[in-house]
Amino acid sequence: MSYQRPGLGVSPAALMFLALGAIWGTSFPAIEIGLHVVPALSFAAIRYSLAGLIILGYAAYATDRWRPRGTEEWLAVSVAGLLVIAVYHGLLYLGELRVSGAVAAIVVSLSPVLTAGLAAVLLDADVDLVEGLGLLAGFAGVVIVASPGGGGTDLLGVALVFGGAVAFALGAVLARPLSTDLPVETMEAWAMLLGSGVLWVGAGARGESLAGVEWTLPALASLAYLTLVAGCVGFLLYFELLDRIGATELHLVGYLEPVVAALMAWALLGQVVDSQALAGFAAIFLGFALLERDVIFEAVVTTADAVRSH
């Protein structure tokens, strides 16, 4: 791609950013709907088996390499497949058996904070006093959500989703030294296929079976949305935004997702996120704002400059 990398304030990138937040935010209540019918790990495995095949076909058509080569490329695929696809989604789906999609989205929004903390531990990244306070605020937010009387009163459910967020963040950190020339679409396709294989193994270990599943229209709609829209379209938007605005600003989408998830949970399921869960989300966002204060300031300045230029 030959275009320049404008900031988030440029209209096309801003629209794609909002679309991605809406798509991925809606995926949390969509998962909850499907889990009423389909066993958790089998549901995640079906989703990523189908999405992986579709994106692999796209990679074969649109890129110059449809499969990894060499140890380093397969290692990068394995890290993403095991941690970001299998462990993250497996724990997320199991967690959503016990907590609402909106609460799960709030806990998952801690991922950028966890990423910064794990990078400091594993990659010897410097963390100053303000960033340290950001880490504490983020963890405090999860404690607020999980406390008795909050939206995530099922402590095990919150713990499962939190474990998934840790796996997602760990995958992001471990992938940093594994920079390869493998097209990102190809890596994502193979990661999805590898991760879905691990999920199928987990489903078998849990004794899950699809034999008795009665595929209702809402369950089919949920699977179609998660596979085609959240999986394929969402990741293609992610790839485009990654190239346009970079990974750091793209982290901000994680704080649009819980807002969308809460609205869609109310519209589709009649669920209302209580004030304690909202307070937890506010603490998590404060933690991210402290950690990424320079990026947020730059994004605000870029957006203001774009508005003035029009």
UniProtKB/TrEMBL annotation:
The keyword Transmembrane helix applies. It is a multi-pass membrane protein. It holds the Pfam family EamA. Keywords: Membrane, Transmembrane, Transmembrane helix. GO terms for cellular component: membrane. Its main location: membrane. InterPro entries: AA-Vitamin_Transporters, EamA_dom, EmrE-like. Residues 13-145, 156-291 form the EamA domain. It is found in: Membrane. The chain crosses the membrane at residues 12-31, 37-62, 74-95, 101-123, 130-149, 155-175, 187-205, 217-238, 250-269, 275-291. The keyword Membrane applies. This is DMT superfamily transport protein.
